[in-house]
Amino acid sequence: MPKRTDIHKILIIGSGPIVIGQACEFDYSGTQACRALKQEGFEVVLVNSNPATIMTDPEIADRTYIEPLTVETVTAIIEKEKPDALLPTVGAQTALNLSVELYEKGVLDKNGVKLIGANINAIKVGEDRELFKKAMDEIGVPSAKGGFAHTWEEAQKIVQETGYPAIIRPAFTLGGTGGGTAFNPEEFEEIAKGGLAASPTSQILVEESILGWKEYELEVMRDLNDNVVIICSIENFDPMGVHTGDSITVAPAQTLSDMEYQRLRDMSIACIRKVGVETGGSNIQFAVNPENGDVRIIEMNPRVSRSSALASKATGFPIAKIAAKLAVGYTLDEIPNDITKKTPASFEPTIDYVVTKIPKWAFEKFPQAEDVLGTQMKSVGEVMAIGRTFKESLFKGLRSLEAVKPLRLVGVPDHVLQRKLARPNSQRFSYITYALRNGYSIDEVHRLTKIDVWFLEQLQEVMMLQNRIESRKLNDVPSEVLRTAKEFALSDRRLAFLTESTEDEVRERRKNLGVTPVYKRVDTCGAEFESHTPYLYSTYEEECEAEPTERKKIMILGSGPNRIGQGIEFDYCCCHASFALQDADFETIMVNCNPETVSTDYDTSDRLYFEPLTFEDVMNIVEKEQPNGVIVQFGGQTPLNLADRLHNAEVPIIGTSPDSIDLAEDRKRFSALLQDLRIPQPENGTATSAEEAKAIANKIGYPLVVRPSFVLGGRAMAIVYDEQSLDEYMRTAVDASPEKPILIDKFLERAVEIDVDALADETACVICGIQEHIEEAGIHSGDSSSVLPAQRILQEHLETIKHYTFNLAKALKVKGLMNLQLAIKDDRVYVIEVNPRASRTVPFVAKATGIPIAKIASLVMADVKTLAEFNLPEVLPVPKIFVKSPVFPFKKFAGVDPVLGPEMHSTGEVMGVGETFGEAYGKAMEGAGLNLPKAGTAFLSVNDSDKGQAVVLARRLNKLGFKLIATYGTATRLKEVGLDCETVFKVNEGRPNIADYIKRGEIALVINTPLGSISHYDEQAIRKAALQFNVPTVTTMTGAEALIEAITTKLNEEKVSVRSLQEIHDGKTLMVNG
Amino acid sequence: MQNSKTLFLCIFALNNLNLLKMNLSKPAILVLEDGRTFRGKSFGSEGETYGEMVFNTSMTGYQEILTDPSYAGQIVCMTYPLIGNYGTNEEDVESRRPWVEGFVVKEASRIASNWRAEETLDSYLKRHKIVGIEQIDTRALVRHIRDKGAMRAVISTTDLDEKSLLEKVNQSPEMQNRELASAVTIEKNYDYPAENKEKYHVVAYDFGVKTNSLREFAKFGCKVTVVTAETPAEKVLAMKPDGIFLSNGPGDPASMKSVVAEIKKLTNSNVPMFGICLGHQILGQVFGGTTYKLKFGHRGGNQPIKNLETGKVEITAHNHGFAVDAKSLPADVEITHINLNDETVAGLKHKKLPIFSVQYHPESAPGPHDSEYLFKNFIELMEKK
Q1: B302/A293 touch (CB, cutoff 8 Å), yes or no
Q2: Rounded to the nearest 5 degrees, what angle is found at the Cα of B334, between the Cα atoms of B329 and B338?
Q3: Are B86 and B223 in the same domain?
Q4: Against a cut of 0.90, is the pTM above it?
Q5: What pLDDT digit, counting tens, does each position of A1002-1047 carry?
Q6: Do the chains contact at B341 and A481, CB–CB below 8 Å?
Q7: Any chain B CB within 8 A of the CB of A294?
């Protein structure tokens, strides 16, 4: 069937900010969909609140709205753009839910917008568990027994059907709290009643237990001609009970015979037909009983998903791209397979390697959260690795994780070990290998973990090989054993550890023995047809298919797995480098191991190496490809950490020199430089022991910011107010050593923080953006909202900032991008730190200025053009007001206090744009998921130094029609100035207290600034209640002021205005070509 | 069937032993007729074996492949690198024994993990005296075959000298013009009973029939009389069949002149006839067409076939090295299916007679079940009569 001619303009909804469970895989899918539809001649309108995405680049869609994903805003966009169709299936659950709301509110019908890809009924059946179960019953596909209960009586009825053990899950509780497994009626009564009470909607799900069953996923595609194909099967290493996003997963399925696999395939096809997904991809999950093969269908997602992105990378079959084409009427047999060119997309990929995905968690960021894995996803990123065997792909994947400190377990007591094995947690893998090395049989480990014995046996083979090597000197390890070790993907570093030698020695020895990797291609077809796409992975075999070219080429090192502090922003920069350099006629080579990203789309660069970002793996590729230049400054800390060693190995690193990077990162050298340039910095020192720290503290005076060197995202960063807390920090939070000193800075209390992004080379320096933080100093820059252009900074300070930036760029001989963090306190500008690399805010600044600064940086670095030749102004102009705001994952971690501090906790960001600050900030808040309160009661509880400001804010709230309620001290002050204000108990003062008010839904806004350690418990209780009941909460006065500004704007505006990037920049988006 | 748990335990006990053996297993060597050589490790039986080197791209179903008689005379390389993970069992066999001449994998699993597993792949192959080689760069081998075409090969664990093996492999028989159906067909006719109520009687020519074809017929209420490849037409007609089935099988279809002649006699009987794979190639010749050898054949479970009557695509299992030449077919034969990968003929129908055939395997095992409807179509033809 040819493409539809009844539609011309298509609206695509993106997935919004990066949150746990919805990460940049939806940028990958969305970008593919936009491009595919544009190529087919459709006019594409995109809405997504996330500025760090490639999909929101102005050239990807025809109209790009970086606006909040709310019914109100998207309605305004629909009314303005009048699209013919809406594609709801590439923006995760966010886009599906929003599309259903738009449909139900009549917006789609009223504006004549057709849904393509999935219809309303299919979305609902996919989402509603009861409808889904009924649909599956009708086609004879078994689903788990059970159902929803709203009362104890209903729960009792359901448990008769499910039997014991029964799983109870309360709806809408934080991190799934209040649920559990009941093994008998007594436990059931306790958990079910507790769950009903805990759920805000008094709703629990009671299900039969299928914990420990094998878990599988199938990626299915269907076209309008009812052709259905399976793209990939995935088997979870961790059996049922652990969210698939938190499981190690393996493609293809490993332990199903053909008969069993075909049964799942038949069920998947029946399911997609029954649910009624007309075109596109769906993900279907199954549980299989390891004792007898019984099957339960778990769920189906009628859209592209995290797993479909993984399946696309795992097979080379671009699911989102094909789904977009199917949505506009093509059938699978009309679409060519990109990789073979000659065969059609109507086939099922077959692979001749094994793919392993491993999640990356951030429990260290949430010390109050218990490290257990369950049905609530908690990982913040993932890596994928490809190998010719499971062992190879698994161990490559582990190496890709960049574990800061590998967990080397010693002397774990049996009861601890058994608990760690039986209860899934982020470190279980280490405990499994420990158990296997310490006399546990595969059978025992299987009994405790329920992990399939096949996987465990594979691990055991690697453990046994390690044991064989461990007792030997490097030169005594026979060549054949060394080769086997590399076939099992043991890293040179690991082998150095086992043989008590150095990584360089291992590398040299294996090269002498000819033990070097070859590269194979991912080709969708198991080599049955020739591959025209250099999508490569390493392995230790005979034949190499890399076939490097003779072109001039640049290699770009990616940023590895997403983590808090290093996410999609860096992938954005890497992609831009690739795009710009391809346009300038370079061959680009991408190296990365993150399956979620656009950078690992085989379409992004000329050549893609899906490999870990370690020295060993990168050097192997460098030796094979011999690039003319390597870019390390775009992928965040990951490639930067390799800069020195690569430089020493004579790898041609382009851009700012590794020496300059060191000059900026080495505290002592950097302080000396600032002194030379007469640039003030907060008083500081470097300590290698607790005693030294104390001495420095006494010299500088409290409060202090303390942190380890060479970390990203403010890892283990803290503010200490006295010697006691400094002592505690030194004792518990870090291990200081001469190699890893602790950095101590004077904390500039209540200072205004500034972020500057700049471009520089020897010919010029351009300030791309001076962003002012909304929250005051003390909150990590990644967790602070910021505004561009700066709103409250005096002109003279802006001049000073410019001056410092120019001087530092010159002194550091920056070639490419640089980022400065500054603070203004008492009319003085301080430089806090300088990073001569791409920063987290590059995409935000690029979207706000309309200038592709990462592309310009790449061209400058590769000597295509000098910066001066771009003819940019000294400071890039900003045509509107742009606010960037973070989003936080606190809801996923039960028991965590959602308070902000110097350690970064946000996973993603949104952008708001407006004519005024109030409008832009309001949009950013809405984009981040906060409903701006328009009426109701505002609660205030502030510390003494904030009371003056509180009066001003309370007056404004009062004028806007808000009632006021405050704790005793704040209330007294407000009453003194004549404001009508109710007094409420603090949490520790009695009942009903403020937390009760919040839980009763009587509070519309919480303004609560910290009062110090005495009221810590109180504040925590307020924040937690507010988080659970979705009440907007601000903890700084500057934040409160900004929010009230936004509310004021919202109350005064008649209709929401929406602006596309193309309009904002008036089509003047700079095209950069080499 | 054995209790799966007990089996696991037995395997565990063996496990450490297996691991020790891992690096101690004997060397094996694979030499192709053009001299390309791969050195790896022995698995399965030891010895020396010759055959046509082919590859299969199915990721599951190795046991069905091993026991598919169409692989007689061939050494099969699996493109998926990890084979044997779920072991072997008594249920997933497609005939009375494995027929491959040799088996080539990247890595054979040391254990079997599945509730139906009864034996590891290694032990199954040893028991059936099938010579295997593992730990070679199978992707390099597949690319070689893809580029150079299917060719003769030898696997040996006894003679490790490349030169001597190359000489021997060049003296081994070629697949072209090789007749193998008579080697795999049964010795004596037998009946395969219908499930539930018996509605039809089908006579199936066994050129190397897969059991799942018989299971399919049984499921649709057919009693199947399986007859030897050389059965004369008269004998078949004397059985008064409602339908005649021509099975899959090994070898060069052009070498089967006498069978083609017998089948030709059957076409005049007006008894519905259905051919699969070799059966399809025989029908092609019966209608006056010719067959030719493909460069490296189609073997796998992911081949896209377009049904030209419905316009729909089915994902199908294939195992063939020859194809019917579209240009050679007379006007009263219609091409009903084509392979979308290379547009070769995948299905035929006689415009007047109740006869049709497909090049691929609607009985699957291993492979997708998308084409099961062809059995229904055949039942409908019998019903109409």
Answers
A1: no
A2: 90
A3: no
A4: yes
A5: 999 999 988 765 567 788 888 888 988 889 999 889 999 999 999 9
A6: no
A7: no
